[in-house]
Amino acid sequence: MSRPATRMDGANKFKLGIFGANCSGGLTMTRAPEHWIASWDNNLRVARMADEAGIEFLLPLARWLGQHGATNTQGSTFETLTWAAALLAVTQGISVFGTVHVSLLHPVFAAKQMVTADHVGKGRFGLNVVSGWNEGEFGMFGLDLLEHDERYAYTEEWVTITNRLWSENAPFDFKGRYFDLHGVLGEPKPYGGERPLLMSAGSSTAGRAFAARTADCLFMVIVDVARLATDIAALRAAAERRVGVYASGHLIARPTRREADEYNHYIVHEMGDWEAAEFMLASRVGGRSHSVPHEKISQFKERFISGSGTFPVVGSFDDAAAIFKRLSDAGLDGMALGLVNYIADFPLLQHEVLPRMERLGLRAPAPAPI
Questions:
Q1: Is the backbone of residue 67 left (phi > 0), alpha (psi -120 to 50) or beta?
Q2: Which residues contact 183 (CB under 8 A, 6 or more apart)?
Q3: Helix axes 80-88, 107-120, angle to 10 degrees
Q4: What pLDDT is attached to residue 194?
Q5: Which of 81, 83, 183, 330 is the most exposed place for a label (fewest CB within 10 A)?
Q6: Strand 334-338 vs strand 244-254: parallel, antiparallel, or unpaired?
C-alpha cells in the first residue's frame, strides 16, 4: 500500500497554507484589539474553515520563547506535534505539519510521535524540519547552538534515522558524528508505508543544499522578489529531483489598495509593538540567522511587526491575487500565510481572493464537503 495522495499532491498551481495560528498573536506584533488569540477553540475553528475552503495545509511555528515587548507575540504556543495530531483528527482533507527543531527532540521519540499523527490523519501529516537559530531557546534546554552549516549536518543525521525507522523492518545500529544508537526499530510504519511529506525551512546556501538532497519541499524567506525566479531556478538545478518551493507570507487584503494600506499602517505604525520588533531584529542578528542577509535585516523591521519578517501581500483583493500570480510565475509552488486575525480575516481570503486566483488559473474551486 502506498501513501494516499493529499491536497499537497493536488493540481492547484499555487497552493496555500495557514501559518502560525498555534501562536499567540500569530505572526503579527500588534497591540490592536483584534490581535490573534491562539486558544484551542480558535485553532480548531480556523482549521475547519481552511479545510472546508480547500486550503492545502496548516503550518505551525515551533516556539519556546516569545518576542518580548508589550505583546510578547508567540510567547504562548501549542506544541506542534500534539497540535497536528489533534487537528488531523477533526479535519478531512487538509494536510497538517508539525514543526520540529531537531536538536530539541530525539529522533527515535519524534519518529514515534509523528507516525502516530500520520495514522490519525490517514497520511495527511507533514514534517517541517528546522535546524534552529534561537540561542535563548536552546539555552532553555541546556544546549549549545552549533555553527550554522554544522546544524544541517546534525539535521541530516536526524532525518536519516527517522527515515530508517519508518522504512526498515529489522533492528539497526547507527553511528554518526552526533548519534550512536543500537538496536533501533520502530512500529508501526507511516500510514500507507511511505514517510510523511518532509519540508525544510531554510534560505541559506547550506539550508537550500540540504533541502535539495533530502526534503520534498523547501520553505524559504523571500528577501528580494526580483531575484526570486533566479533563486528558485538555481535551487531546482542543484536538486536531483523536483523539490517544491514554498515561501512564508502575511496577507492584508481589503476591497481597495488604499484601505489595505491604511489598515497596514494602523497595525504597524499606530499599534505596532516596536520593542518586540527590536528584539526580533537583535535575536536574528545575535542568533546568526542566515536566512536574511545582514545588510537587509534592518529593512525588515516593519515586516517583523506586520508578519514576523514574512513576505507582505498587502493590497486590494485584485492586488493580492496578482501578487500570487507573480510569485507563481517566478516558480513558487505556494505560500503559507499569516493573518492578523485568522478567523475574522479568513472569509476575505476565501470569498474574495480565492475566486480571483481561480480566474487567473492558479487554483480550482474547492471540492464540496463530504
A1: alpha
A2: 171, 172, 173
A3: 20
A4: 92
A5: 183
A6: parallel
C-alpha cell at 119: 495514522
pLDDT tens for residues 259-308? 999 999 999 999 999 888 887 777 665 444 445 555 555 567 888 899 98
CATH of 7-359, one of 3.40.50.410, 3.40.1160.10, 2.30.130.110, 3.20.20.30: 3.20.20.30
Place of cell 514515534: 112
Dist CA 342 CA 55 (whole Å): 13
Asked if residue 365 has a cis previous peptide bond (ω within 30° of 0), the answer is no
Phi and psi, residue 361, nearest 5°: 80, 15
In eight-state DSSP terms, residue 5 is: P
pLDDT of residue 288: 45
Whole-angstrom distance, CA of residue 218 vs CA of residue 253: 26
Residue 31 has pLDDT above 70, yes or no: yes
What is the rounded CA–CA span in Å between residue 5 and residue 3? Answer: 6
* pLDDT on residue 248: 95
The domain locations on the chain are 7-359
Locate 155 and state its grid cell: 539535521
Q: What sign does the CA torsion over 105, 108, 110, 113 have?
A: negative
Q: What are phi and psi of 39, to 5 degrees?
A: -75, 165
Average pLDDT (131-159) is 84
Instruction: Write down the number of H helices and E strands in the chain.
Output: 14, 11
